[in-house]
């Protein structure tokens, strides 16, 4: 994968998945703008890239506002002359069951994940369209946004919204040669190490132990580096025809998430009143009801 002469921004790339994305893009030849809210963390990330011969520049700021989004784009242009790739990874968690979740808990997560994705993509797309050479938008989703997760009303809603925006952007940006895709990773990070059924595998990784095939394949769980290859691929010329997709990645697993679609349909002349629905529901719809939450293998649920 050759990304030479390409310039990328990766939000929230001081550590974890974001750092893995930034490092992989740099290894493929891209110049990378690293972003974190902490200056020392951002500079350490830059140093990890330059130590391997890559090019990187830090822009410190909390993602969410239009001002930070513009600062990121300006930083890329000032440091490297252009912008070709944006990876929106920055995020926070404020997990609480819905009836205990405050307005602040909700707003903070939506501001960083969803509004931050929107403001950064908008600023990046304006620059890419001015350049007239296409571009790549890669937004980071989550299984929680695809299937829901207990205690994550704010996070699940934001991540679902991100994938919804990606589908719209794929249509809006097609004429400009800019692709928009979502990556839905599962990896050992600060956001997953508290998940009970993943805890043994996270501890194993921290101890330098090799993950079993069950974790890497059935759970699709691995290191942040395992999730970085798809980001570099989607950023490259080979992926020019791929847009509007949600791609799952983790461990040894790579998969496509489906778009929502109607799974059962019935018709009733004159429309549907409650009695007509009551009569039709058990016949046509009951067996097609969807589950919620992640569908975990039995071995995982037993731990």
Compose a concise summary of this entry.
With 303 residues, the chain is an alpha/beta fold. It is built from eleven helices and eight strands. 41% of the residues are buried.
Task: Give a written overview of the molecule.
This protein is α/β, with parallel strands linked by helices and 303 residues long. It has a single domain (7-257), classed as Rossmann fold (3-Layer(aba) Sandwich), CATH 3.40.50.720. The chain is 43% helix and 15% strand. The chain contains 11 helices and 8 strands. The protein has an 8-stranded mixed sheet with strand order 3-2-1-4-5-6-7-8, sandwiched between helices. Helix 1 crosses helix 9, helix 3 runs parallel beside helix 4 and helix 4 runs parallel beside helix 6 (153-172).
Write the layout of secondary structure elements.
Layout lengths: L6 E4 L5 H12 L3 E6 L2 H12 L4 E6 L5 H15 L4 E4 L14 H29 L3 E6 L2 H5 L5 H20 L5 E8 L13 H8 L6 H6 L9 H8 L10 E5 L2 E5 L16 H12 L12 H4 L2
Parallel strand pairs: 1-2, 1-4, 2-3, 4-5, 5-6, 6-7
Antiparallel strand pairs: 7-8
Helix pairs in contact: 1-9, 3-4, 4-6
